[in-house]
Design goal:
Layout lengths: L6 H10 L4 E7 L5 E7 H8 L3 E4 L26 E6 L5 E2 L6 E9 L11 H14 L2 E14 L3 H6 L17 H5 L2 H13 L4 E6 L5 E6 L2 E2 H21 L3 E3 L13 E9 L18 H12 L1 H8 L21 E2 L7 E4 L7 E4 L8 H17 L25 H9 L2 H7 L1 H19 L4 H7 L4
Parallel strand pairs: 1-6, 13-14
Antiparallel strand pairs: 1-2, 3-4, 4-6, 5-6, 7-9, 7-10, 7-11, 7-12, 8-9, 12-15, 14-15
Helix pairs in contact: 3-10, 6-7, 8-10, 9-10, 9-11, 10-12, 11-13, 12-13
Length: 456
Amino acid sequence: MAGNLTFDQLKKAVASGEIDTVLACAVDMQGRLVGKRFLAKYFVESAYDETHGCNYLLANDIDMEPVPGYKAASWSKGYGDFVMKPDLNTIRNVPWLEKTALLLCDLQDHHTHEDLPHSPRGILRKQVKRLQERGYLAYFASELEFYLFSETYDSARAKHWQNLDTASPYIGDYLIGITTKEEGVMRRLRNEMEAAGIPIENSKGEWGPGQEEINVRYAEVLEMADRHVILKNGAKEIAASEGKSISFMSKYNYGLAGNSSHIHNSLWSADGKTPLFFDKGAEWTLSKLGQQWAAGQLKYAKEFTWFLAPYINSYKRFQAGTFAPTKIMWSEDNRTAGFRLCGEGTKGIRMECRIGGADLNPYLAFAALIAAGLAGIDEKLELQKPFVGDAYQAASLPEIPKTLRDATETLASSKMLIEALGEDVVEHYVHTARWEQFEYDRRITDWELHRGFERY
């Protein structure tokens, strides 16, 4: 994996005073960066080998509350340490923070120093190993959408997240004039991510007022997941420094478009030079391998939907006529379908999964897509004909799970994912999903108060 600094370069930058802080970060179940800020000289002296963190960080909810019932960590086990093993290939400077470098850590068992099987980066690394054993390299790219607000996070909280001022007052999908007004944040985001070793191809206005899409250059799948989480974290930090705020919620407002994270994926030869999905003579110019891969993702889409939509709110995005998919079907170039074939007739041919929201954890989402694709290859599945027309109105097509509860129970019974990821891993994330549902079920919402306070 590639940052933009070697360890030797980091040591020189620390010695010269160019860098005085090192962020040693791991990724939690929610896809957030967690970790420690090191005085740089101590990091390069000793912590570069390993540091430690509390294992409750992979057994808590989005509010950082310890969740009962996990096998991996609990009060009865004392919430001990795990090892945070720095991946020295991921070191990069952080242009938006003064004299700061960042790197990612793998989470390992405190005693065996093996990857924790339920750690998001470890889950993806396992699927990468399965690809490597077959001589494959996976290139992925994720498109992230978000809303940019002319509010600070403090002012949004003070307003109870209602009637917020978006960076633009009306929809500016592809409009250059309106997005020029948003350049204070977006220009910094493009340029400073590039300087941090995260190449940004472009940004554009999306189908909501103040909504943005940012496209990161495709990369090997683990590197892409690393880029994704650093981008999300950095985008919020850059916006905050400009007196703005950003939300990656799947659906922050009922009346507005949701935030997606479309995932492009393809297989290449181990050296990354030969596209394995491109075949001029094949139907749709998609090779037999590519067709099997896509067929696997279609077959198992219901089973892995939770990895693409992990929260109650995630399922509010799946609404007809909003450019978010509601049906499990593929198309050649049709944004109403859950999967879309892109780059047909070129070496860049790939499948785009349109199901995921911007709230997904990329390590988990990418791992699930790989597992399903490999299952399609192993089972030699045949790819059905592409759908043509308005998938929203096609009652006969299989539907994406409509609720978190549906997706959770489908995940729990997935033999394919249990085999590919491990029974304990699936159980761990099913428990996570059920806790999210439990927390929601016992809460009183504004919608309930509005409807029932006086009327009941």
